[in-house]
Amino acid sequence: MWTFVIAGIVYLIGVGVVLMIRPSYMFTPDGDWKEFGIGQNEERYTPFPFWLFCLVWAIVSYMVVMICIEVAGVGTGTGTATGATISPRNARRNRLDLDADSAAGEAVELPKGYYVLNRKATKLSGVPKYVYLGQEEP
Questions:
Q1: Which tens digits make up the pLDDT trace of 39-49?
Q2: Which sequence spans correspond to the domains of the chain?
Q3: In sequence order, what DSSP letters do the residues of 12-69 get, joined into one string?
Q4: Residue 111's pLDDT band (boundaries 50, 70, 90)?
């Protein structure tokens, strides 16, 4: 969710900057938008109009935010035991209620790390099966 919010803010800032600058490549001298057209009068037509800029900038701003988040390592798990990374909000941490594994249904204390529901094994057995991702404690 935060990815879309940040990408939306970056998008709005970029569109605002273009609207304030009003480059002659996209706008006429009196400030109107140029229409889309290739090989026509350059005073009125452009191959890169404002609406096309908005579409391209939306994709670019989203990709920039995604790359920045990936480089910063925000929202990914610490372990790659199964070759996967997870978001902490998608995994329960430190305590899980494993009714099928405990006789009385009480909560079972588990080591620190991330646990992800193994949907395939759960579907096959009918009992929730979790995979531990993280560093093993010594």
A1: 888 888 889 89
A2: 2-72, 88-133
A3: HHHHHHHHHH--TTTB-TTSPBPEE-SSS-TTTEESS-HHHHHHHHHHHHHHHHHHHH
A4: low
